[in-house]
UniProtKB/TrEMBL annotation:
<keyword id="KW-0804">Transcription</keyword>
<comment type="similarity">
    <text>Belongs to the GreA/GreB family.</text>
</comment>
<protein>
    <recommendedName>
        <fullName>Transcription elongation factor GreA</fullName>
    </recommendedName>
</protein>
<keyword id="KW-0805">Transcription regulation</keyword>
<dbReference type="InterPro" id="IPR028624">
    <property type="entry name" value="Tscrpt_elong_fac_GreA/B"/>
</dbReference>
<dbReference type="InterPro" id="IPR022691">
    <property type="entry name" value="Tscrpt_elong_fac_GreA/B_N"/>
</dbReference>
<dbReference type="InterPro" id="IPR036953">
    <property type="entry name" value="GreA/GreB_C_sf"/>
</dbReference>
<feature type="domain" description="Transcription elongation factor GreA/GreB N-terminal">
    <location>
        <begin position="16"/>
        <end position="83"/>
    </location>
</feature>
<dbReference type="InterPro" id="IPR036805">
    <property type="entry name" value="Tscrpt_elong_fac_GreA/B_N_sf"/>
</dbReference>
<dbReference type="GO" id="GO:0003677">
    <property type="term" value="F:DNA binding"/>
</dbReference>
<dbReference type="Pfam" id="PF01272">
    <property type="entry name" value="GreA_GreB"/>
</dbReference>
<dbReference type="InterPro" id="IPR023459">
    <property type="entry name" value="Tscrpt_elong_fac_GreA/B_fam"/>
</dbReference>
<feature type="coiled-coil region">
    <location>
        <begin position="21"/>
        <end position="77"/>
    </location>
</feature>
<dbReference type="GO" id="GO:0070063">
    <property type="term" value="F:RNA polymerase binding"/>
</dbReference>
<keyword id="KW-0648">Protein biosynthesis</keyword>
<dbReference type="GO" id="GO:0006354">
    <property type="term" value="P:DNA-templated transcription elongation"/>
</dbReference>
<keyword id="KW-0251">Elongation factor</keyword>
């Protein structure tokens, strides 16, 4: 009996940059290095005797389960990853770095548009599917957008759009 190939719908895939993919791979490697130590702690705690009142055993078992769970989660992220290669089109898109000016206080901020897994606003990494990310996607330098955020609406202007030339497709 021939095997049936199932096509996974595009909405299952997690869009991310190549840097975000590498970051997840690095996390997996770091966790794999911790695994033998966690297993050794579990074995040592088990050797202490009565498991029903053995706090060390319960803690070691919980820690190992947490590590295994995190590894499964990260591996699934890679399985369903769709790496987006930034395009130097002059428009805001995944992987592009954009300088924005906020109309209410004339302050400028610089963000790189990334996948939701790699988003970290403190490092200037903005999720493409955040309210601000959605509002500026597809805009060019000089364009403005009204951002509908949970705390209210605000206006931003795209000052500049650039792409790291090492990642251009």
């Amino acid at each position: 009996m021939p095997s049936k190939k199932i096509k996974v719908p595009d909405f299952y895939y997690q869009e991310m940059t190549a840097a975000g993919y590498r970051q997840i791979e690095d996390q997996i490697e770091a966790l794999k290095k911790q695994r033998p130590e966690k297993i050794a702690r579990l074995k040592a705690a088990r050797a202490l005797g009565d498991l029903s009142e053995n706090t060390e055993y319960s803690t070691a078992k919980r820690d190992l389960r947490h590590l295994e769970s995190r590894l499964r989660y990260l591996n699934k992220q890679l399985t369903y990853a769709k790496i987006i290669t930034p395009q130097d089109t002059g428009k805001v898109g995944m992987g592009s770095t954009v300088e924005l000016q906020y109309d209410d206080d004339d302050e400028t901020e610089t963000y790189t548009l990334v996948g939701r897994q790699e988003a970290d606003i403190l490092q200037g990494k903005l999720a493409f599917d955040s309210p601000l990310g959605k509002a500026i996607t597809g805009l060019s330098a000089g364009d403005s957008a009204l951002v509908a955020a949970p705390q209210g609406e605000y206006q931003v202007k795209v000052v500049s759009v650039r792409v790291n030339q090492d990642e251009v497709g």
